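Please produce the structure of this protein holding zinc ion.
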Amino acid sequence: MAEDKLPTRAEDFAEWYNKLVLKADMADYSPVRGCMVVKPYGWTLWENMQAGLDRRFKETGHVNAAFPMLIPMSFFEKEKEHVEGFAPELAVVTHGGGQKLEEPLVVRPTSETIIGYMYSKWIKSYRDLPVLINQWGSVLRWEMRTRLFLRTAEFYWQEGHTAHATEQEAREETYRMLDVYADFAINDAAVPVIKGVKTETEKFAGAVMSTTIEAMMQDKRALQSGTSHYFGQNFARAFDIKFLNQSNALEYCYTTSWGLSTRMIGAVIMTHGDDQGLVMPPKLAPIQTVIVPIYKSDLEKSKVMEIADRVFFDLKTAGVRVKMDDREGVTPGFKFNDWELRGVPVRVEIGPKDVEKGSVALARRDIPGREGKSFVPQLGLAETVKNLLNDIHHSMLKRAIEYRDANIHDPSTYEELKEVLAGGWAFSWWCGDPACEAKIKEDTKATARCIPLDTQPGGTGTCIVCGREADKKVLFGKAY
Ligand SMILES: [Zn+2]
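Below is the modeled complex.
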């Protein structure tokens, strides 16, 4: 029993995470090393994430398509910068139908190359632009050290790939999708993220500019939760994506790509979870409300179930994702713990006394114990629950923002920076020299997470490492 117990976050954050993913039925290990099996509860969360993102993609003019998983090896050799960054992570198919293949095929680590190839066929004139395509799927990267949802060989994601006639349009697209990701993270997942630009060292191989949303987990490590890249004409040159512009001259397209993966599930778990288990953000929760009927005798049961069934119907009709826990042979206490572990935002308890009083007990997951409990009338319950779900979202977001902000420091010396980075992030002036960035990494294992877009103080300061003049402040932190 003891080894099955969930450790507290303070005891062992990494073990708390690993055990919680398994115990809450989110995912399991696969017989293939480094791969994961996403269980229905975890997959439903991912489906809700997909829905929130897909709606936003379509609102911003994008369409979905599907590109093949197998990509000719030669495609990866066309873009040297790209293949250098990826080569060790590639999984290669050498045989098919019992025969050695003439050309090995790569299981896509990302679809840039095959999409670039297709775009070169599809795009002929400025009238064909912009192309705004997204794909939902999985990719494979031969990762050596893996953890469920955070880093697995195969993971699920979406990858958007767009082509434009001008640099300005493509840059706007890059930022637009960064905004979409931030909006989703904050307003659906209640995960406060910081939007920023990656340094040259940290940017995606082959990109002119990489942007990111960075979130702080409860162990104060950063989780890169989504990225949006501007490629300039690099990929268009490599894949010959040309168009006739309005003056009838041939020009290379400007392209972007952007992706968000099942890593976001890890972000949700590590931003909100507590020592009792998951705390699901209401807008994404697979189950938003669980009803636990409480009774002892058959007579009580028939009275309680009548109300419980009606409450279930009312909530379902009102659009709440509701579950009735009418399991026999387990105590209400067991059910409470079980749903707490799974992080269901609101629990409705209905017992014989509630039937008499025309009330129910509501327990909110984000505030454990008595403090999070209230007794409310059955009348208008659907509205009450919907309001409560909304409250929970905002209080989870507020708590996460406060936690993050309390752990971002502004050290005044390099020595202080090193101390700060042992247990938090630093927001510091940086001169732009990769050598200063590298020194921080060497001394502290922290990396430049991003150059935040919204919180630059303006003006100049002195680089936290070398003391030279600096015109930007950078967030440094240890990352997943
Ligand atoms: Zn410097």
